[in-house]
Amino acid sequence: MSLELGARVAERDVDASFEINTGQTVALLGENGAGKSTLLAVAAGLLRPERGRVVLDGQPLLDTDNGVDLPPHRRGVALLSQDPLLFPHLTVLDNVAFGPRSRGVPRRDAQQQAEHWLSQVGALDLAGRKPGGLSGGQAQRVAIARALAADPRLLLLDEPMASLDVEVTPALRQTLRGVLADRTAVIVTHDVLDALLLADRVVVLENGRIVEDGDTRVVLTRPRSRFAARLAGVNLLAGTWTGDHVELDDGGVLFGMAAEPLPQPGDRVVATFKPHAVAVYRDLPQGSPRNSFGVRIDELEPLGDLIRLRTEQLSADVTLQAVADLDLTPGTWAAFSVKATEIDVYRLA
After folding, report:
1. Which of 120, 135, 241, 301 could bridge across to 263 with cysteines, CB 3.0–4.6 Å?
2. Residue 85, class by beta-carbon neighbours within 10 Å (0-12 exposed, 13-18 middle, 19+ buried)?
3. Is the pLDDT of residue 53 over 90?
4. In terms of domains, do 108 and 254 share one?
5. What is the pTM of this model?
6. How many Å apart are CA 204 and CA 218, to the nearest integer?
7. Do residues 84 and 151 touch, judged by C-beta distance below 8 A?
8. Which structural domain range is residue 141 located in?
9. Residue limits of the ABC transporter domain (predicted)?
10. Spatial CA neighbour of 187 closest among 328, 335, 298, 39
11. Angle, nearest 10°, between helix axes 92-102 and 136-149?
């Protein structure tokens, strides 16, 4: 394994570990406060856990059991946080050249490398400026160039495009895609497109614990955690498979189509279905073969020609006309109904 990362940080209620193969990019997903940035800080050497182990290419960077704790500058790890943290007294060019210079690269060569990476992120025209004269998006592009110029063995990216202008993001995402193709990296993101285009694998954190780990496309098309389901834009309900239906954790019953590998009676399962598969009524339909749920509408979110109705657990996509006809507003009680053929049931590993 290229990276072994594990940490227990009691103060932040984080206890998680995972491994990454050489050249693999992992997207670390989860709600705010789930522990994503904590794990990155442990890997970078900025936070010492009560117990932890970080091994990169066979070299222990942190091993609390054996008293190993290399300082950040000796780890070969670059962390790009949400704050660019550029050196205010240096020009953009010298900020980016700082990494190569720290490795002993001659000044002229380091500046050429800096110009290359600034060009890659579309910021070469900023080379002579000081950080104080940059916008937030410009500073973040420079910070990405600086991280890449350092040529780290491990690249850690904490929402690297969160502050970028929408016009810049697609081009920079393509740049990162090329850079990360043969590099070991961990990227924290809330953008499903970042995960799909940049990551080979997805690890989902919930309350400081790993609740899902798998191939990116599998996780985002067959999610087994609420966060991944919400990110993928699908509804998810958990329960126990009886052989022909799901007994939901909240006591309800759900009929759906079992997917491979087929669950066995007693298996823990999740059932997923898309918001557009949900029919919405003001009252529970009588005698309908569909699965029906009484819900309270919490939020109406415009989605182009549709409106997404959000409840505590479920979402449904309906037309603006349907919203008007049913007189749906936040606080309204309604019924969501979905056919069994629209529901996929997956066994939890």
Report:
1. 241
2. middle
3. yes
4. no
5. 0.79
6. 13
7. no
8. 3-221
9. 1-232
10. 39
11. 20
